[in-house]
Structure of Lysosomal dipeptide transporter MFSD1:
Amino acid sequence: MWGVGLAIYVTAVFHRTSLAVAGLEATERFDLSASQLGAFTVVQLLVYAGMQIPVGLLIDRFGPRTVLTVGVITISTGQAGFALATTFSAALGARVFVGFGDAMTFICVLRLVNTWFEPRRVPLLTQLTGSTGQIGSIVAAIPMTWALSELGWTTAYLISAATGPALLITLLLLVRDTPTERHHRGHPMSRLTLMSTLRASWAQPGTRLGFWVHFTTPFSASMLVMLWGYPFLVLSEGVSETVAGALLSLIIVAVVASGPVLGWIVGNHPWHRSTVALTTVAGMVVTWSAVLLWPGDAPLWLLVLMVVATGCGGPASMIGFDVGRTSNPPDRMASASGIINVAGFVATLVAVFGIGAVLDLATPGSSDDYSAGAFRLAMSVQYLLWGLGTLQIWRYRTIVRRTIGREAVDGGSTMLPLP
Ligand SMILES: N[C@@H](Cc1c[nH]cn1)C(=O)NCC(=O)O
């Protein structure tokens, strides 16, 4: 069950990031300005974030198998549409479909993990899901670059869309919602019940703690991988294009390598989950500060430390889902995951936008030759997000620790009995 779900999630991450290496080709094919190119990423992220809460509710109502089926069909249709699009508006519409399908993948896989594995194994498998999924972005970077240059736009994107039918058949043949049911249906929900499910999830301090952990930890890596990493490293830190590419791949290596370690710590020491998240944020703040304050170009060893610390933020974000899991009953689990998942993508959007806006303000009239000084200022936008997130993590961790107590947390529950 998990293998099929994971294969679908790796493919979704591949589709999500498959535009990162196609910027130049897209600019030529659709005759785009820089902001139109950026719109593809922004629209996709907006759709993804906006769909998280509805998708969480749909999973609780119709089960992960059904929602995943719709997700695979939608994302493959979007990617095929992107292959065939010849105008900016058609391509943008196709990216909306990719965002919709993508939004339906991850929390379905989390739900399958929660149903099919014993609770003590769930933290590690949740981590392995998040970390292994990021391999999709390496596939998007290397083979996709080759396919675009050797096979051309339409064939490269059509081949990538063709993974959809194969995954769909495997999904329909193998995946069951629970060991006893192919389809698990929750209770039909009126608008009132939907609202009360969301309210009940959000009322749990553990859901809020999970939200802020997911807000604070992954955005720096996502912002680097999705948009600003390459220009920052080349234009501001003076590394070659090859080294910049290698450093961005190292982020994914750090994600994949640190995931199981963090998963093990979190599974064995639930009381210390928020401490692990805060330590990871501190690692990012310290290494980023050293890079940004270094006089002139930062040395390569420091850039390596910074990207590794930043990569660890991805797996640390999974702590958010784990706290959400132990703070909600199984029939509200996907809704809580949806709420928590919105946070990281909203923080990424704010970082991507904020950095672009500061770059434009600091370098008036020039869009492709930002100075090192402008980049340093722009990258400092991240401190606002880390600062807000850290305060909120501290606030809700204090509430959880005070109201629930160590024995219950170590026993696997952060659920507060509410009226
Ligand atoms: N935080 C990520 C997952 C992750 C784990 N390790 C690195 N990244 C996340 O929010 N995932 C949701 C998704 O759809 O990818």
Summary: The two ends are 36 Å apart (CA to CA).
